[in-house]
Amino acid sequence: MKKVVIATLGCKANQFDSALIEQSIPQSDLKVVPDDESADIYIINTCTVTRKTDYQSRQLIRRFQRKDPEALIIVTGCYAQVNPEEISRIPGVDYILGNREKEEIGQFLLQLQKRERPLIRVGSIAEEKRLHSPPISRFSQLSRAFLKIQDGCNRRCSFCIVPYARGPTRSLEPEQVLRQIERFSRAGYREVVLSGINIGSYGLELSPCFSLLDLLLNLEKQRPVQRIRLSSLNPDEISEEMINLLASSEILCPHLHISLQSGDDRILKRMGRNYTSESFSGLVRRIKSKIPEASIGVDVIVGFPGEVEENFQNTYKLLEILPVTYLHIFPFSKRPGTPAAQFSDQVNGLVIKERSQCLHELDRQKRRQFYQDFIGKSCLVLVERKRDSKSGLLRGYSRNYLPVLIRGGDELMSREIEVQISQVERERLYASLEMR
Ligand code: SF4
User: Fold this and answer.
1) Of all atoms in ligand 1, which is nearest to the CA of residue 234?
2) Atom of ligand 1 nearest to the CA of 261
3) Best exposed site among 202, 294, 302, 320 by fewest CB in 10 Å?
4) Residue 390 class from Cβ within 10 Å (0-12 exposed, 13-18 middle, 19+ buried)?
């Protein structure tokens, strides 16, 4: 029985793709093992969203190659899609497959051999029309299942390489989404995270059009699983109806992760983002007025070309005054092939570092404030299948994305339980079971 390692970098959509690869591998001849074990075949599903993820992808390839020099090395994913030549220069790589080609790995795995020179199979993804997603029932060790309901993106934000790696937007049929969530629920998953590259454009290309809101209304009616969480959305994709649905829903988690990217209107314009700091501010206030306990996470890029101190201060102040919960901070990363990579007024790396540190400190303050607000309050926590490695306590997330630690037995794992938050210590929330 040959051993296979599948290593994944990047977003939930890419992790879902890896789960599909794992499921397509003939389990009668091949055994998928964790990446700390030795293996005969390594599949590296790469990410190219930043220069750092390219570097991490290369590091993984080299680490596996050093660990098992005779093993077959197959590289796929977004880095392979946009820059196969660069990967082909890494010694020991046998196959480089594009994002469409990765769907066929399982089929051909047993016939693949070590090669003198890597074989590159990367087709153009720009013509992709359909989202191919066979039924799946296992999602590795996680307690929550990610479901890729959409792939690709038709937007062209000036800093983003993703559309060149993932192609145009394409969506899973609503019926397939429902069936797949039911399958996850039968497999014991209590929460499904709706993922994709730009889920806000879900269903717009379907005929008839069936938007993300239509999908959520349908899922609310069908209730196929206990909890549904949304992955990130652009500000202009969150409508009043969607906020109202989240406010009244039995299954949709009151948690929104919003891709703001900058809080300065001049920079937003240069990024090709079609909203303003004022419209974002209004959106956050409307969400919090309808759903006071909602968690609002924000993606922000620091050091976009042309960002002077005043622009950065506009972003900082906006996030400081708004009731957002946490920040994901991305230092600007020049992506070859994007317009922003050609902009002449690139920001100095040290300045980017300083600004990033400022925002990380603000992120800590925001999280702490949000967590403090829940001391003494009850919430529903989905207990994960693995205990917290540091404390040995049970761990899980509330519906509004509070990371909670609880004292209790393994029988509580994979169950949603009611707890009362008792204290916050070093950005960790401790809770006790609500006695009924
Ligand atoms: S919406 Fe913009 S940032 Fe997001 S994937 Fe599309 S092009 Fe990239």
Assistant:
1) 1
2) 3
3) 320
4) exposed
245: nearest Cα among 266, 214, 271: 214
Which residues does a 6 A CB cutoff place in the pocket of ligand 1? 153, 155-157, 160, 162-163, 197-198, 234
119 pLDDT tier (thresholds 50, 70, 90): very high
- Is residue 271's pLDDT more than 90? yes
Cis peptide before 135 (omega within 30 of 0): no
Closest CA to 62 of 81, 30, 98, 89: 89
Residue located nearest, by CA, to atom 8 of ligand 1: 160
What distance in angstroms lies between residue 310's CA and the mean position of ligand 1's atoms?
25
All structural domains of the chain, each given as residue ranges with its CATH number in brackets, are 2-123 (3.40.50.12160), 127-253 (3.30.750.210), 256-373 (3.30.750.200), 378-433 (2.40.50)
Q: How confident is the model at residue 140 (pLDDT cuts 50, 70, 90)?
A: low
Q: What is the pLDDT of residue 112?
A: 86
pLDDT of 435 higher than 60 = no
